[in-house]
Specification:
Elements (H helix, E strand, L loop, with lengths): L9 H16 L9 H29 L27 H16 L3 H28 L3 H7 L10
Helix pairs in contact: 1-4, 2-3, 3-4
């Protein structure tokens, strides 16, 4: 069992904030791209950023009143299994990963890419802890998890 890091998981949020800040600050030490790759790198990175932002916003909107920055569910929240959540269990994390990847790509930041890999590993652990809380809180969560195998990005991962 993974640690709670606070009654509702506030410690997980604090570590996440540090990792995300590191990704965004890595732009300050980005190396840029060679001229022959610059346009393609920017285009791919911008597409990743836009996809991540769309995934993040859609996931947040569909959660509605169940949305919380903490990994433990709200007592009054309802399990959301429709819309985007039919395809993926943690689209907010997936959106954050795509944004971090796109951001790091735009600035050609190896440090940002390394921190994005670390962020992915962190989200993997955080989502597992969150799912322990969700199974305890929602009787139907175990079945939902079984029928929704993608964790972060629809059709991909």
């Amino acid at each position: 069992m993974l640690p709670e890091l606070g009654r509702r998981g506030g410690g997980w949020v604090a570590v996440q904030a540090v990792l995300l800040a590191g990704v965004f600050l890595s732009a300050l030490v980005g190396l840029g791209w060679p001229d022959e790759l610059e346009i393609a790198a920017y285009a791919v990175s911008a597409a990743l950023l836009a996809s991540g932002a769309s995934l993040l916003v859609a996931g947040a909107v569909q959660l509605g009143p169940a949305l919380t920055p903490l990994p433990a569910p709200r007592q009054s929240g309802e399990l959301v299994t429709h819309g985007l959540y039919r395809l993926v269990r943690h689209p907010l994390y997936g959106g954050g990963l795509l944004i971090a990847l796109g951001w790091s790509g735009i600035f050609g930041s190896p440090l940002g890419l390394a921190l994005t890999v670390l962020l992915e590993l962190f989200f993997e652990l955080k989502s597992r802890r969150e799912e322990q809380w969700l199974v305890d809180h929602y009787p139907g969560y175990a079945e939902y998890r079984r029928r929704t195998p993608r964790r972060f990005v629809p059709f991909v991962y």
